[in-house]
Design brief:
With 156 residues, this protein is α+β, with helices and mostly antiparallel strands. It has 2 helices and 8 strands. The protein has one domain: RNA polymerase II/Efflux pump adaptor protein, barrel-sandwich hybrid domain (OB fold (Dihydrolipoamide Acetyltransferase, E2P)). The protein is elongated. It comes from Conidiobolus coronatus (strain ATCC 28846 / CBS 209.66 / NRRL 28638). Keywords: Mitochondrion, Ribonucleoprotein, Ribosomal protein. One of its GO terms (cellular component) is mitochondrial large ribosomal subunit.
């Protein structure tokens, strides 16, 4: 009898326990992604040639962007503090090499010339190239007189 009463009380308590056990448990359907310490990268610095051999440049145009001196400044070319090469005068870009026989090395240079047919490097004994952009005043005055004469003739 005692066992009967214990059995009924256990069955009643077990039924209430089983109802708790059979309750719905909802789990995630997608596993969460793990964190990563990778995936960062800086953008490229856009280094390299901006003007090529034979191209026309204006004063101040950037010819070559670089880190360190891969290419050295030659005729009419300046170098910025970040080693950027730029044109000092308007003209045509020329790339050339000069070899150093003592060290058996070769340096690359870039220069700007006034004439597209000029070859670099220039002979050190040659006179310096200059571009004056001057106007022949006598020729200019003659043209003005001719235009004025033709204008007066058309008025008469």
């Amino acid at each position: 009898m005692i066992f009967n009463s214990i059995n009924t009380s256990l069955s009643k308590s077990c039924s209430s326990l089983t109802s708790l056990v059979y309750q719905q448990v909802r789990n995630a359907t997608k596993k969460t992604g793990g964190s990563s310490r990778n995936g960062r990268d800086s953008a490229g610095r856009r280094l390299g040639a901006k003007k090529f051999d034979g191209q026309l440049v204006k004063t101040g145009n950037i010819i070559f962007r670089q880190r360190g001196t891969r290419i050295f400044p030659g005729e009419n070319v300046g170098m910025g503090r970040d080693h950027t090469l730029f044109a000092l005068v308007p003209g045509y870009v020329k790339y050339y090499r000069i070899s150093n026989d003592e060290k058996n090395t070769e340096r690359r240079f870039v220069g700007v010339t006034h004439d597209p047919n000029t070859a670099l490097p220039l002979d050190p004994n040659q006179p310096r190239q200059r571009k004056f952009d001057l106007v022949d005043v006598n020729d200019f005055n003659k043209k003005l007189e001719e235009e004025y004469a033709s204008y007066r003739n058309s008025q008469q």
